[in-house]
Amino acid sequence: MKKRALLSVSDKSGILEFAQELDKMGYEILSTGGTKRFLEENGVNITAVDEVTKFPEILGGRVKTLHPLIHGGLLAKHDDSQHQTEMAENGIAPIEVVCVNLYPFRETIIKPDVTVDDAIENIDIGGPTMLRSAAKNHAYVTVIVDSKDYAVVISELRAQSSTTPETRRRLAAKVFRHTAAYDSYISNYLTELTGEEYPEGLTLTYELEQPLRYGENPHQKAAFYRSPLGSDFSIANTKQVHGKELSYNNIQDANAALQIIKEFKMPAAVAVKHMNPCGVGTGETISGAFAKAYEADSTSIFGGIIALNREVEAETATQLAGIFLEIIIAPAFSEEALEILTQKKNIRLLTIPFDGTKQDKWNTVSVEGGLLVQQPDTFSYKDAEIQVPTDRQPTEAELEALKLGWSVVKHVKSNAIVVCDSDMTLGIGAGQMNRVGSAKIALEQAGNRAKGAIMASDAFFPMSDTVEAAAKAGIKAIIQPGGSKKDQDSIDMANAHGIAMVFTGVRHFKH
């Protein structure tokens, strides 16, 4: 009896050559629909599945392979006498090779004009069933879901007329990962349609972007996975045009830089170290914006990550080339800029479109044994119900600076304090165990530049000591959420020193 292979694919890449090789080795090839037509048109001998089952495809193709003569051939144990007897009694022949990939459900739902009916019709039933049957029975059946595996299967079949048990198990594991991911796309799509926020189970799927040399430290293994349906504006969607491989810490810092730079419409530059901004600048040009970001903290920017929201041209590239930087991210680099920056062998240059509209609806953070899920913090100054509880109102210039401070402070690890003027940060205090500690760091970094500047705080002041420290440094306006039982103490302190204070009503904790 000829060995049998069942081929049914939506991705035709490599399938003709694979089928031709099986044909040469004497396999009877079963197929359906478009795959059958494609292979026959290219001269491959095909047996239609309905010739085997003696049952036509029905319901518009929804039912064609769901039949005992197919699944018996997939699930039978070749060394089980009872199975062999039952197969003989029922006219079932074994199927040794299965190559199936699935209806393009993910590709369908990302189309902007997709309808629910289109999505539902692209939920594959027969394909996953055949894959799971063959993968369960991988002791006897070789199952392929990825065209990248055609070559190794053909090589082993040529060499020894069968694949190795190790290859069959590896391919079976790949199949179950594939069907699990496929089901997760479907379940998440339908869950979103129902509007259910917190389903009883949450299944997420990611695809390997790249193995990493190591994690946060050289003794830790690491890899980078991407969400196939994730945000457009993601480090996973950047294109690396120069430099050595990204590290775990590079990716974390680059992600932080992207989250900050997307706050700005005007030309802006962001410098990040250890996932905190160390300098943010805006200007009429991207060159001017970067000059401000550099001036904000010319020490900490050393070895940092830079994100810019305009194309990098020669002038900006010359500025950047004068500093040791790990990564530069921008929408594009001019030819002159690339010529300048690629003189540095190791610097990573990444590009990403700034016009993407798709954003993640949830942020996830892993904890030992679990996962935290929350909405992204998209609250901005324009969303706030601004109150000014102090005697003095902020000036127009101070309001512009307060808006900048509020845009930056939400991205600084709590407790967070930002000192800035209208176009650049002057001092940033992050991650201290008390708020006045962060304020002292930010004010010390700002130095004399704090005189006439503003201060932004990610959360309310539990004591008036932060306002007192700001007053001593010459701060003229403060923006903070408000909401403390001791708000009046801070208001009184601000009034005593002629400081304008703005309440936003919303805090920006970032851990």
Features of this protein?
single chain, 511 residues, alpha/beta, 6-stranded mixed beta sheet, 5-stranded parallel beta sheet, 18 helices, 20 strands, 18% strand
Kindly describe this structure.
There is one protein chain. With about 500 residues, the chain is α/β, with parallel strands linked by helices. Helix content is about 35%, strand content about 20%. It is built from 18 helices and 20 strands. The strands form 5 sheets. It has a 6-stranded mixed sheet with strand order 8-13-12-11-9-10. A 5-stranded parallel sheet has the order 3-2-1-4-5, with helices on both faces. The chain has a 5-stranded mixed sheet with strand order 17-16-18-19-20, with helices on both faces. The relative contact order is 0.06.
**Physical arrangement of strands within the biggest beta sheet:** 8-13-12-11-9-10
Please summarize the sheet with the most strands: 6 strands, mixed
Instruction: Provide a count of the helices.
Output: 18
Category by helix and strand content: alpha/beta
Task: Name the poorly predicted regions.
Answer: none
Radius of gyration: 30 Å
Global shape: elongated
Write the layout of secondary structure elements.
Elements: E1 4-8, H1 15-24, E2 28-31, H2 33-41, E3 47-48, H3 49-53, H4 68-75, H5 81-90, E4 97-100, H6 105-109, H7 116-121, H8 126-136, E5 142-144, H9 150-160, H10 165-194, E6 207-212, E7 222-226, E8 239-242, H11 248-261, E9 268-273, E10 276-282, H12 286-296, E11 304-308, H13 314-321, E12 325-330, H14 335-341, E13 348-351, E14 363-367, E15 370-374, H15 396-409, E16 416-420, E17 425-430, H16 435-446, E18 454-457, H17 465-473, E19 477-480, H18 487-496, E20 500-503
Parallel strand pairs: 1-2, 1-4, 2-3, 4-5, 11-12, 12-13, 18-19, 19-20
Antiparallel strand pairs: 6-7, 8-13, 9-10, 9-11, 14-15, 16-17, 16-18
Helix pairs in contact: 8-10, 12-13, 13-14, 16-17
